[in-house]
Amino acid sequence: MIQWEKQYELGIKSIDDQHRRLIEITSDLSVLLTEAAYGEDIYDRMVEIIQALTNYTVYHFKFEEELFEKLNFEFKEKHILEHNNLIAEIEKLDLRAVDEDQITYGKKILKFLITWVFKHISGSDVLYRDLFIENGIA
Ligand SMILES: [Fe+2]
Questions:
Q1: In angstroms, what is the span from residue 83 Cα to ligand 1's centroid?
Q2: What is the Å distance from ligand 1's center to 106 Cα?
Q3: 93: CA distance to ligand 1 center in Å?
């Protein structure tokens, strides 16, 4: 199980809630992998989680990007590029490989996601924090 840590909070409620939800979905994947370790077939649920993650990520990025436009965020191009790269990575996931070796593949995805999300929050999202707060985004 993966847990949200307070150090990742930006102090912007809407965004923090969305980030927390992203971590929750990622955590669902880690719980599922524990079940797979006991020999359960997790293929269908893994596909479901990845689908949920994709949908939520798209929603969250769109939310941020609309505010970048509205507030004319200085680093918006670079930030949007990072978003697009992650969406492309998620869409590239080969779900047939999941069926071959569910645990190995699932762990690989999990590790990638956790690293990405936390790195993105602490390295890129922090850059818009002050701008959002100054403009009353809560
Ligand atoms: Fe972002």
A1: 6
A2: 24
A3: 21
The 10 Å CB-count burial string (b at 16+, else e) for 113-136 is bbebbbebbeeebeebeebbeeee
Please report, for the domain that includes residue 40, its CATH number: 1.20.120.50
Residue 54 lies in a domain: yes
The 10s digit of each residue's pLDDT in 98-115 is 767 888 888 888 999 999
Domain, as residue range, for 116: 10-134
Does 1 map to a domain? no
Residue 111 domain-assigned (yes or no): yes
The alpha carbon of 64 and the centre of ligand 1 are apart by a number of angstroms equal to 6
Q: What is the number of domains present in the chain?
A: 1
Q: Is residue 53 part of a domain?
A: yes
In the structure, ligand 1 is a single-atom ion and the residues with CB under 5 Å from it are: 64, 125
Condensed to tens digits (0 to 9), the pLDDT of residues 120-135 reads 999 999 999 999 999 9
pTM of the model: 0.92
